[in-house]
Amino acid sequence: MRTWRDIARYHLVIPWLPLGLPWAILSVSFIVNLVIFAFVPQSYHEVMTGHGLVQVADAAPNYTGGVVSIYILVLVIGINSIGRSLPFGLALGVTRRSFYTGTALLGVALAAVDGLLLTGLQAIERATDGWGVNMHFFQVPYILDGPWYVTWLTSFVGLALLFVWGMWCGIVYRRWNLFGSMTFVAAQVTMVVAAVLILVWADAWSGVGHFFTGLTAAGLTGVLAALAVLLLAGGQATIRRATV
User: Fold this and answer.
1) Which contacts (CB < 8 Å, 24+ apart) does range 2-9 have?
2) Whole-prediction pTM value?
3) What's the half-sphere exposure (Cβ side, CA atoms, 13 Å) at 242?
4) Least packed by Cβ within 10 Å: which of 3, 22, 25, 209?
């Protein structure tokens, strides 16, 4: 446990990269979207009342999807955590297994904290009617639009999944360089295409559609959690042969 803690602290030697950069990019995206929606003219529709026609502001929420920026940055940080730091960590006598475990635990901890912050910001967004301009930046229909505890759990799982996926990509790059990384990505795309072709051949699209449309946000979070575990296991198996 002490070794894992030391590895996590090693990744925080430059704290602005894992702690500050994702939130800096997210803040820029938020400010840009807020300015845009502040200057977009409000649309109205007419409603017949006892006093005649009255103009009422449209209440349709404006979803921006800008919150995805922090997820992309977490993926990049996961890649960097292995690609940049592994050689120095091994030079200090740390085993590959310990380095991988300590790094993964750091990613999980950051995902838990970042997910809590995103949940808090979403609560503020709800309380202020979309920051006063009806902008839904931290809310995403279906997946990040439920009770706070589901929002936190989904955010946590999503961030952790992308971090461990990034770790695996970083290990592949460290082991097989750019060609190996391209092959790794191509293999994943091929698997998705093959799965789609199998579903088409078996005429199973309706069954898959019923499965996913029947999933709640919590159910989808469970599927993502299972995928995160598989990615974590894949990275663990790959790092044993990673070179420096």
Assistant:
1) 3/94, 3/98, 3/102, 4/98, 4/101, 4/102, 4/105, 5/102, 6/102, 7/89, 7/94, 7/98, 7/99, 7/101, 7/102, 7/103, 7/106, 8/102, 8/103, 8/105, 8/106, 8/109
2) 0.87
3) 30
4) 209
